[in-house]
């Protein structure tokens, strides 16, 4: 999640580190429920991996994030997955979109994701892949 956005949504939860979610792939879905195109999510995919940022989330902020991510509406399923960090494996919560994979994110949304990955120290090829993904035009 973009650092300023995370600070707004979970102000008491500092960044803990970065790592890789092995066996999962970043994709997009729920184009019909997003106000600006498809929404980011992850799907199981052996051989793939997703760069992630981990946070030390307080119980209060966890409840705020659950509401923000549409927990009451059933938009996401909250699951625990193992993340590989430089210091070893940690278990983290992920919000996985409960919608079919497919659809295009907006150019703005994709840019926010790429900027956040870059700011967190993702490898340049990973950031470049995000920046060159198909997306809806800015005017769309």
Automatic annotation (TrEMBL):
One GO MF term attached to the UniProt entry: transferase activity
Keyword set includes Transferase: yes
A UniProt-annotated Pfam family: AIG2_2
Keywords: Lyase, Transferase
Active-site annotation: 69
Binding site for substrate: 109
Name of the molecule in the record: Gamma-glutamylcyclotransferase
Annotated source species: Amycolatopsis acidiphila
